[in-house]
Amino acid sequence: MNKKIINTLCIPLSLFSVGYASAADVVLSNVSMDYRHEYRLRDRTHYDKLTLATQLPYDYSFAVETKFKTGGSDVKDKYYEDPVLNAVEMTLAKKYRFGNWTVSPLFQPEFNSTRTEWKVGVSPWYKINDSWSVGGLYRLELTDYAHDNSGCANCSTNRHRTVNRVDGYLRYNVANLTTTYKLIYQLGDENLYANKKYNYEQELQFNYALGDKREWSPYISFGDINRSSKSSERQLRLRAGIAYTFK
Fold first, then answer.
1. Which residue, 139, 164, 217, 245, has fewest beta-carbon neighbours within 10 Å?
2. pLDDT cut 70: percent of the chain above it
3. pLDDT tens, position by position, 152-189
4. CA dihedral angle for residue 31, residue 123, residue 128, residue 215, rounded to 10 degrees
5. 201 with 226: CB under 8 angstroms?
6. Measured between alpha carbons, how far is residue 192 from residues 149, 150, 225, 227 in Å?
7. Are 138 and 168 in contact (CB under 8 A)?
């Protein structure tokens, strides 16, 4: 691990230092499961994700996200066929409340067989009224690639990559329907899109709450994403999933 990553990992110690709970005090609440399937139209590839999440005392939260993809050399138009692990991501966050504002620092390590990624960020949200809210995210992403494989074809010889990511959100709630528009901008020290050191994505998602306690939440989303770091081609990403919260 390089010196930049070591220094950056010291940041979460200060972000999460407030509100320590002993093991005897920990009571899990709003435990949830979330399954999502994804299809990318031009690549004609399928991906799956399973997330387990829970709220912890003192406004902490923790989640584990396991991502899968189709294995083998020929992956086009194949779903639920030879699934292999794509990545595992963990998220530890703490929510601070200031009137209509919430601010959540977060720490997200992610890893697979070709890379380890350390992500540190902060996500502010502002509730305008009962229907409208706006939010954002800034996240620093430090990626350390393995030296003995081709997991990072566009990285420099030191096999490290740094990306600054900024998200913007606009959310509207009416009855049981929640609509969220998200815009993402990334700036890094390696090529991310069309042989340039930046990339962008946008997504429109619809969630619908079901059940007596609104414990079920099916959703669909439509995303505009890049195809590769070398090409200027864009493609439509379709996602559909369902989340269940134990209330």
1. 164
2. 85
3. 555 555 578 899 999 999 999 999 999 999 999 999 99
4. -10
5. yes
6. 19, 16, 11, 10
7. no
Q: How far apart are CA 243 and CA 89, in angstroms?
A: 18
pLDDT at 224: 98
Q: Which two tokens stand for residue 32?
A: 């949830």
d(CA 86, CA 13): 28
For residue 44, give the DSSP letter.
Answer: T
Counting Cβ atoms within 10 Å, is residue 124 exposed (0-12), middle (13-18) or buried (19+)?
Answer: middle
d(CA 36, CA 79) in angstroms, rounded, equals 13
Q: What is the DSSP string of 88-118?
A: EEEEEEE-EEETTEEEEEEEEEEE-SSEEEE
Contact 233, 225 (CB under 8 A): no
